[in-house]
Automatic annotation (TrEMBL):
Basic and acidic residues compositional bias, start-end: 402-420
Entry keyword Oxidoreductase: yes
PROSITE patterns per UniProt: FMN_HYDROXY_ACID_DH_1, FMN_HYDROXY_ACID_DH_2
InterPro entries given in the database record: Aldolase_TIM (IPR013785), Alpha-hydoxy_acid_DH_FMN (IPR012133), FMN-dep_DH (IPR000262), FMN_HAD (IPR037396), FMN_hydac_DH_AS (IPR008259)
A family per Pfam: FMN_dh
Origin: domain of life: Bacteria
Family that this chain belongs to: Belongs to the FMN-dependent alpha-hydroxy acid dehydrogenase family.
Name of protein: Alpha-hydroxy-acid oxidizing protein
Length: 420
């Protein structure tokens, strides 16, 4: 029979984790996140539903989002053992300059809606991490202010071709004068996708106050206080807009844009030029022949045409067709550093992530973005070591394979939509 005793107070005190009883500050909450899903859960509690759904949602039935995530989930890793992995190099040269991770923080619109610091917070976190950040045409911070906020960072600029070509040319000139070293031309938005979450939520920029909004203010007072007590939420590249995101896209973006416009931009932009929104070999070859320095395989995060192929599944075919020297990036569905490793092993030069860092931004501003990047970094380093690889540049097709095409229904996305 086991003898019992009364433990000394000192022994009990040593077992108590004082941090668990400390006030729940933002930094403490972030410290308790270990995955991007943890950040997502925290973000969901911190912002209004319409804001969270804008980030989380996609077009129509959100099948494209589900396919993108399923493609990464179905990757099969092939580790090698008895390798010295004491030190690993996570850096990679992308478009002529080294980045400390094969990751670009992708352009996203309305970013100050997620957190009042918006793009400035993202740029500062990216600069400290040594990775590029791309500012969107529909950003809420000007390119001049962004560069001033993170003067040591590597700033890219993302361009939509507007109906007003003079306005597009003016944006290109501003990005050049501000010191951006790469231009991303997004080509998959002749019109806006049907994003029904935004329609149902009545999302507008700036938010309009009605009965539902007043109720939400009571649930998210800090977000609303930050919104009304800081500079007004507006677009930095054009005059104010009072409608929905879809109405904005259909009003400004040019559905007649063609290859001649890409050639015009190539002539106007003296630095690196990447075309984003490519979904096949033929278009990839066409834009590279027209002067682009790289392509991004992308379905716009599942937010434009629904039921498209997962960009990751296009990657091996496009890489094989373009050859080893082409710069081929991929986005959509990246939820961990293991996903980053998988993409590189399957042929990507690097990945663009959007939702991943926006979860961090919503959860905790600049510190939240930094936490998202840190999670990706930690995941990537661990995955390389477990694969028996000492550098990102050493990842090849021998380390990963795409899974067979399973008959997935879009479970994770649709279940989240139903529970949001």
């Amino acid at each position: 029979m086991t003898a019992r005793r009364l433990p000394p107070v000192a022994e009990l005190a040593a077992m108590v984790d004082a941090r668990a009883f400390a006030p729940a500050t933002t930094r403490r909450r972030l410290a308790r996140t270990h995955t991007l899903e943890d950040l997502r859960a925290l973000a969901r509690r911190r912002v209004p539903r319409a804001v969270f759904d804008y980030v989380e949602g996609g077009a129509e039935q959100e099948v494209s989002i589900a396919r993108s995530r399923a493609a990464f989930r179905d990757v099969r890793f092939r580790p090698q053992v008895l390798r010295d992995v004491g030190e690993v190099d996570l850096g990679r040269t992308m478009l002529g300059r080294r980045a400390e991770l094969p990751v670009v923080l992708a352009p996203t619109g309305y970013t100050r809606m997620m957190h009042h610091e918006g793009e400035r917070a993202v740029a500062r976190a990216a600069a400290r991490a040594g990775i590029p950040y791309a500012l969107s045409t529909v950003g809420t911070t000007s390119v001049e202010d962004l560069v001033a906020a993170a003067p040591t960072g590597r700033t890219w600029f993302q361009l939509y071709l507007w109906r007003d070509r003079a306005a597009s040319a003016a944006l290109v000139a501003r990005a050049l004068a501000a010191g951006c070293d790469t231009m991303i031309l997004t080509v998959d938005t002749p019109v806006s996708g049907a994003r029904f979450r935004d329609v149902r939520n009545g999302l507008t920029i700036p938010p309009r106050i009605g009965p539902r909004t007043l109720a939400d203010m009571a649930l998210h007072p800090r977000w609303w206080i930050d919104l009304v007590s800081t500079e007004p939420l507006r677009f930095a590249s054009f005059s104010s807009w009072q409608g929905t995101a879809a109405e904005l896209a259909d009003s400004l973006f040019d559905p007649t844009a063609g290859l001649a416009d890409l050639r015009w931009l190539r002539d106007a932009w003296p630095h690196r030029l990447v075309v984003k929104g490519i979904q096949g070999v033929a278009d990839a070859r066409t834009v590279l022949d027209a002067g682009a320095d790289g392509v991004v395989l992308s379905n716009h995060g599942g937010r434009q045409l629904d039921r498209t192929e997962a960009p990751l599944r296009l990657l091996p075919e496009v890489r094989a067709a373009l050859g080893a020297d082409a710069e081929v990036y991929v986005d959509g569905g990246v939820t961990s550093g293991a996903d980053v490793a998988a993409a590189v092993a399957l042929g990507a030069t690097g990945v663009l992530v959007g939702r991943a860092y926006l979860y961090g931004l919503m959860a905790g501003g600049e510190a939240g973005v930094a936490r998202a990047v840190d999670i990706l970094r930690t995941d990537l380093a661990r995955t390389l070591r477990l694969l028996g690889v000492t550098a990102v540049d050493a990842l090849t097709g021998t380390h990963a394979a795409l899974g067979d095409r399973p008959h997935h229904r879009p479970t994770d996305v649709l279940e989240r939509a139903g529970s949001s």
